[in-house]
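Record pair follows.
FIRST:
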Amino acid sequence: MLTYATARGHAFIDRELYLPESWTGDADRRARAAVPATRNFLTKPQLVARTLRAAAGVDYVAADADYGRDPGLRAFCHERDVAYCDVPE
């Protein structure tokens, strides 16, 4: 889920269901669940990065510790000058 937050409030602006590789790698299962064949496996941090690419005006990201420790997501934020913090569990 991506939430846009300001001092005046917040709004959910995007969300995407994480699908494990066992689902995305099984064409029959994907078809039965109506998951498009074009849907490839992405890790949860990769889903966040994809959503952030489409978002405009993101100044910072706050994430739980699992996302905040991901080197790919951290590199993505550094490359785009987006501040981030991970929230301890």
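SECOND:
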Amino acid sequence: MRNTRDGLPRQVIAGAVEMLEDLGLLFVSLSPTIDSAPLGPSRRRFANAVAVVETVRGPEQLMAIFRETERTFGRRKRGLRWGARVLDLDIVLWSGGAWFSPSLTIPHPQFRLRDFVLGTAAAIAPRWRDPISGLTLQQLNARLQHPRPRDA
């Protein structure tokens, strides 16, 4: 694995992908990496990418692998909203539909509001459907990019 823990955000993503592949995840598709401003008070710029990953692991097992990978890259504590972090891995959607447990919610509760998620996800899986709304990623992204005025 590349030593990217303190590297530039794009290097961190490349290192995380490499580590996850070494752990047995198959990257079916990986979006282009985009740069984005931070959400919240952080001053660090971020790089974002979305992947379609194939695995036999269930959501909880996959999230455990993601958390361990985050720790390897220096993340100290999850759950601190807007906390500083080098790497943040999420399960946005899952082929099994919706998933709810005390520690994990799929679809990711905020993904419909984040253009850095929807834009990159729609680029690699435009027809993938949100199990809650039934809309495709392409439709959700179009709604986010071109919101309709609310009815008065």
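COMMENT: The chain has four helices and six strands.
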